[in-house]
């Protein structure tokens, strides 16, 4: 008869996984560069469909030209498009930044609000972006369900949900709220470096004994080691 994990057992295993990931990635953090809440909000919006590394590359030029919501709201569209062009979908992203900055000026006095309910009302801002900003700019615990987080949560057997909001709530119930932001970093770092969508590095994974999906990727240590990345996606 197959072993059925109890709720208590699931919580204990989930928290053990997070402890191991914390030891494995002691430097885990948001990999987008930012100096304040406005910068983090903008770079998170820009990170859709591209890499953090590319966003970080355009960030200095972007905020040298438009350091505040008021400055960005008044930006020349073509000039702004020229800066964000390397990130792809530049017309849509330019439109998002113009609307987002205008909303910050008109509705929040040029300041980024520190509440989820206010953030998700901003143009182009969903729960994922809002939780990134809350957790990393305001120290308000939040779970960031990106593609890595959702994939790993399902592989770990924490949830079978695929809807990001349902994943957020299901996983959040397994952990103390104070751990949510770092938990997000741990899973995202692990997803970028070892637990890839295709060919996860199972044989080089510190979670082998705790993961029900062990064996989805190569279990041979040498083969798995070749799949490990020392940093996130280029």
Task: Characterise the protein shown here.
This protein has 234 residues and is mainly α. It contains twelve helices and no strands. The chain has helices spanning 7-24, 37-46, 52-65, 69-73, 77-84, 90-108, 116-119, 127-137, 147-155, 164-172, 180-193, 221-225. Helix 2 runs antiparallel to helix 8, helix 5 packs across helix 6 and helix 9 (147-155) packs across helix 11. The longest helix is centred in the middle third of the chain and has 19 residues, at 90-108. The N and C termini lie far apart (45 Å).
Give the total of beta strands: 0
Distance between termini?
A: 45 Å
Average pLDDT works out at 96
Number of helices: 12
Helical content stands at: 40-55%
Strand content: under 5%
Q: What Rg do the Cα atoms give? A: 19 Å
Uncertain ranges: none
The main pleated sheet reads as: none
Keywords:
mainly alpha
Q: How do the helices and strands line up, and which of them pair or pack?
A:
Elements (H helix, E strand, L loop, with lengths): L6 H18 L12 H10 L5 H14 L3 H5 L3 H8 L5 H19 L7 H4 L7 H11 L9 H9 L8 H9 L7 H14 L27 H5 L9
